[in-house]
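Reviewers of the previous submission asked for a worked example of the structure-prediction workflow described in the proposal, so we include one complete record here. The input consisted solely of the amino acid sequence. No template or homolog information was supplied to the procedure at any stage.
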Amino acid sequence: MVKIIEGIRTKARKDPKKIVFPEPEDKRVVKAVEYIKKEKIAIPLLLTPDNIDSAKQEEFASVFYEKRKAKGVSFEEARELMENPLYYGAMFVSEGFADGFVAGATFTTSSVIRAALNCLEIDKSIGLISSCFIMVVPNSSYGEKGTFVYADCGVIPYPTSEQLALIAISSAKFAKKVLGFKPRVALLSFSTKASAEGRWIDKVRDAVAIAKSKNSEFLIDGEFQADAAIVPEVAKIKVSQSNVAGAANVLIFPNLDAGNICYKLTERLAQAKAIGPIILGTSRPCSDLSRGCSAEDIVNCTAITVIRAQKK
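From that input alone, the workflow returned the following structure tokens.
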């Protein structure tokens, strides 16, 4: 696990990018920023009252107003939002003054997602904002030598089949570009290849078909129970033929309940390292944080955000 984490940080150090941190009063953030600066993982900008530029606030308010006025946002509302360091930081990235932002130590996930939705452009190649976690499980031979991508664990409560398909493709792109491994994507259910029936299973099954029709580059299959997705011996019994079953390294959950519960259980029971939530589908990279995060978690999320910015 240490080797994987250090590998991520080493990639970031090769070309550090400017990353904004809009939570200057959180001690974990301050500690992480000091370490990030010292280790040259990124060029951190901790937004404090004395480095928020009033001229830029006005500029950002005008840009935000033009973007959102069709949605009923007034200039006064836009100006008020720029008093919020989260929105100021997101616009700082949107307007090209920084390469990404990391927040969520004190702001809620919903607040971070709203700032990303309202300030950053949606990646047109995906067309959907979702999230994922990198899960690094110690002493595990499953997945990519113990490394997985879990999605969606933080944004869409009850995705449609179309949305599940886009989450699968977005997560596969992330695994390939950022982690550098060949994604094998499993869409999970309580059924393995029609071992049960029902509308919930139909939704997952339809998502697999849609994902395959939209992108033939990645190995995507399902519906699978979790053991059939990652355990070779179980896959041999339950699945007659699949290029994903028993070897999946990207796991797509049918809803937010399943994804969020599973990542937290994996983190605690398997003593896994959870990096994220990483927001997918925006034109510029940003990461949310769990409010229970450690300074080390913030460092790791920042390194991933830097790598994503490098790929841009």
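The beta strands are 18-21, 43-46, 100-102, 130-136, 147-151, 184-188, 219-224, 250-252, 273-280, 286-287. We consider this example representative of the routine output the project will generate in years two and three.
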